[in-house]
Design a protein that fits this description.
Strand order of the largest sheet of chain A: 1-2-3-4-6-7-8-9
Mean pLDDT of chain B: 93
Low-confidence stretches of chain B: none
Number of domains of chain A: 2
Radius of gyration of chain A: 22 Å
Low-confidence stretches of chain A: none
CATH class of the largest domain in chain A: Mainly Beta
Largest sheet of chain B: 6 strands, mixed
Number of strands of chain B: 11
Strand content of chain B: 15-25%
Largest interface: A-B, 47 and 37 residues
CATH class of the largest domain in chain B: Alpha Beta
Number of helices of chain A: 3
Strand order of the largest sheet of chain B: 4-5-6-7-9-8
Shape of chain A: flat
Helix content of chain B: 25-40%
Number of domains of chain B: 2
Order of helices and strands of chain A: HHEEEEEEEEHE
Mean pLDDT of chain A: 92
Distance between the termini of chain B: 70 Å
Number of strands of chain A: 9
Structural class of chain B: alpha/beta
Largest sheet of chain A: 8 strands, antiparallel, barrel
Radius of gyration of chain B: 22 Å
Oligomer: heterodimer
Chain lengths: 217, 277
């Protein structure tokens, strides 16, 4: 895995070394070349994360920091979230990584005010615990099919709401808008447990996340 | 003036309400960071407390009765039905659980099972199962139930309860722990006359360290007044003379089968009966 990351980094750095000298040059007499460079730049610009999120709970770490991209008329959002799982009764704290896809079907502007509401958010996210004690598929030491599930990867779903305050342009320092959101979510293991047992109610498997989003771009 | 004061008070009330709600959310684990967060709320060290109850209630006795259940993972309804069934009987002294309270090793599973079994009128003890070790389960088990190797006296019978899930620990921990067994066998308590072994996985299973299966059974055989050995894991009822020397190993089925073994120990030895509920 680490060798793969190393290879990717090498390829990326080589590509940058070959292509980046173009950066910073003034427009010359070769418009085709300028056009290509501009395309190249705007291509990379798309990859600049557009916001930062701070949140708590929701099976993405007790405290977590996220970044990502909004697109498709702001109906869609893809988050990368790094969360901390505190030690509690374990012998060490752990980190978790989450890849999250959000969809906001509606955005309601509240009159002339700078406030808007997204009355529904739907999300699907994959969460991984970054620790060697957890597996994606069972360790080789076990006989075939000994454990059918992954302890490392969780599949989750959530529904929530979001309120956004748009900062008027003259008063902007670093952010375009600030949003507050909450989301109720659950994971595959909880659903698996609840569907076969009356003992577990809907509320037993529901988890909450609260967060703030700072929109930069 | 009054209006602004009203607004202020309104805001204050709302703020206080949100803080109370947030506090409630945190305390009932609503804001959970991970299913494997190892955040244990409620009762801890269940085995220690229940062992004290068993030892106190059966002190000086040579006959008693216990229910042997195992593998209750993800069978919450059946476990609850068992608890209700057992609470309807008044001829049982304690419940022995052969391990696997959790299926995925997820923290909440230990707490859900503890809460169900906690409704039992009689004390219960829980052994460590292989599923209980997954992820950080063993650390949660230790916090909720206690050490994975433990023993207790029920009248004149010593129950030696062992972690036998060797495969889960990569053979890096001594499993079964012979030092622990030796210490138990060297117990000079004059009340200790007979022995029952309990474990999650029996010798011969792929989870057991079978390289030492014979040596393990040698210790079992040489235990003071050995009665029998109990285990779970296989989800079925089995009675087997595994080593051909008359010492019987009993496997109790998973609770999903709505079936458990009731053991009666008396002066002469022991008897057992399967009970459906």
């Amino acid at each position: 895995m680490s060798r793969f990351i190393f290879k990717c980094l090498t390829v990326w750095l080589t590509a940058l070394w070959l292509l980046v000298p173009a950066y910073g040059e003034t427009p010359g007499e070769n418009p085709e070349y300028d056009c290509r460079v501009e395309r190249y730049r705007s291509g990379w610009n798309c990859l600049v994360p557009r916001y930062v999120k701070l949140q708590t709970g929701g099976l993405m770490g007790s405290v977590s920091v996220g970044t990502g991209w909004n697109y498709g008329r702001d109906h869609w959002e893809t988050d990368l979230i790094l969360g901390v799982i505190p030690k509690y009764s374990d012998d060490h704290a752990r980190l978790s990584f989450t890849l999250k896809q959000n969809y906001y079907p509606w955005k309601v502007q509240l009159g002339q005010s700078p406030f808007s509401v997204e009355p529904l958010s739907c999300s699907f996210f994959v969460n991984m615990i970054m620790d060697r004690d957890y597996w994606v598929s069972q360790f080789d030491k076990y006989p075939n099919g000994y454990y059918w599930f992954s302890t490392r990867v969780r599949l989750n779903m959530g529904l929530g709401q979001r309120w956004t305050l748009r900062i008027p342009e003259p008063r902007r320092k670093f952010h375009r808008s600030i949003s507050f959101y909450y989301e109720f979510s659950t994971c595959d293991m909880y659903v698996t447990s609840a569907v076969t047992n009356r003992y577990l109610s809907f509320w037993d498997i529901l988890r909450l996340s609260l967060g703030i989003k700072f929109q930069i771009l | 003036m009054n209006r602004s004061l009203g607004r202020f008070l309104n805001g204050l009330c709302r703020g206080a309400a949100s803080i109370v709600l947030l506090g409630a959310a945190v305390s009932c684990n609503l804001l959970e960071g991970s299913p494997y967060d190892a955040r244990v709320t409620g009762e801890t060290d269940v085995n220690t407390r229940n062992i004290a109850r068993i030892e106190h209630a059966l002190s000086g006795k040579t006959s008693f009765r216990f229910a042997f259940i195992s593998d209750t993972q993800r069978w919450y309804d059946e476990t609850e039905a068992f608890v209700n069934h057992l609470n309807g009987r008044d001829d049982v002294d304690f419940v022995l659980h052969g391990g696997d309270v959790s299926d995925f090793g997820v923290t909440e599973e230990f707490l859900w099972q503890r809460d169900i079994l906690g409704e039992l009128r009689v004390p219960y003890v829980v052994l460590l199962g292989n599923h209980d070790v997954l992820g950080n389960g063993v650390r949660v088990y230790r916090r909720v139930f206690g050490e994975e190797n433990f023993s207790f006296m029920a009248g004149d019978v010593k129950f030696i309860c062992l972690n036998t899930n060797a495969l889960e620990f990569d053979y890096s921990d001594p499993i079964p722990d012979f030092n622990f067994i030796k210490t138990q066998l060297n117990d000079e308590n004059p009340i200790y006359r007979r022995t029952i072994y309990a474990m999650h996985v029996a010798p011969g299973d792929e989870q057991f360290n079978n390289n030492v299966a014979d040596i393990f059974h040698y210790y079992v055989r040489s235990s003071r007044g050995i009665l029998c050995a109990l285990y779970g894991h296989g989800h079925a009822f089995v009675e087997a003379d595994k080593f051909g020397d008359g010492i019987l190993y009993y496997e109790t089925p998973c609770i999903g089968k709505r079936f458990y073994l009731m053991f009666t120990v008396n002066e002469e030895g022991y008897t057992y009966e399967p009970v459906y509920f």
